[in-house]
Amino acid sequence: MTRLKTEAAKESLLRRVRKQRLKYVTVLPSLITILNGVCGFAAIIFAGRGAFAMAGYMVLLAMIADMLDGRLARMSKSTSSFGGQLDSLCDIISFGVAPAFLMLEVLHEYRLAGFVRLNVTFASFLQRFIWLAAAAYISCAAIRLARFNVENEEDESVHMSFIGLPTPAAAGVIVSLILFHQEIILPELSAGDTPAYLGFCESVVIYALPFLALGVAILMVSRIRYPHILNQYIKGKKPFEHLIRLLLFILFIFWSRQAALVLIFCGFAAISFVKWFYYRVIRKRETVLPALEGAAKLETEE
User: Fold this and answer.
1) CA separation for the pair 103, 143 (Å, rounded)
2) Is residue 7 part of a domain?
3) Most CB contacts within 10 A, which of 81, 106, 244, 275?
4) What's the pTM?
5) Is the C-alpha dihedral spanning 76, 81, 83, 84 positive or negative?
């Protein structure tokens, strides 16, 4: 009797699995999502070969694919749980593993070797700290994507903001600084007879990378709200000032795309944090302190 019940339970479980088996997928959005993951994989390959600028551009290309796949799926009304899960799996490659590995390779190439010659103990400590920053970044990116899958709503009208820094923006902070270092600072330094401030700028960029990786990792898993740029500032009817700002940004990108990328990604990551810090810490303190002082005066008068 027990054996019959066990077999019946197994058959029931198999029926449920067959019902949940995926039969149809949307081809074009899925292909673009896979292109996102392939670009992330290519970024890892280029970073391992020392082509750091090309690796950075591969991550940026993955961002474009990440924007297009969701947009196409919503336009064709073919959003699905499969597409969301596939998108997150590709995102962890392109915006989690690839930027962290690129940062490790750049820091090893330009700073760690010099510290080994000067002080082996300090070089060992620095290497562990860099690995810790990279591991924290990848872990927080995975947590951010898993939380987004659980809390995400498919209705496009509710996508006006994100809770926590999006993983493409976090990857953009690291990648934009590496591109600025590779294509602006290094060519000037290698040309000779360069100003002293360029060497200082190179040191600032390189030393700031692991700390920025830790910072954006915390912002990814935070509850700070970040605006959806397309839905809030570009989509639909907007004031004339929005068009002027957008044109200025486009002109800035044509003038120096590396500097523009640093400004866009670092500014996007910092502005929402500054607003949160002001309203939750400074503004709150300014309202609480007068109330406490008033209560203290009433107690003394009594």
Assistant:
1) 20
2) no
3) 106
4) 0.81
5) positive
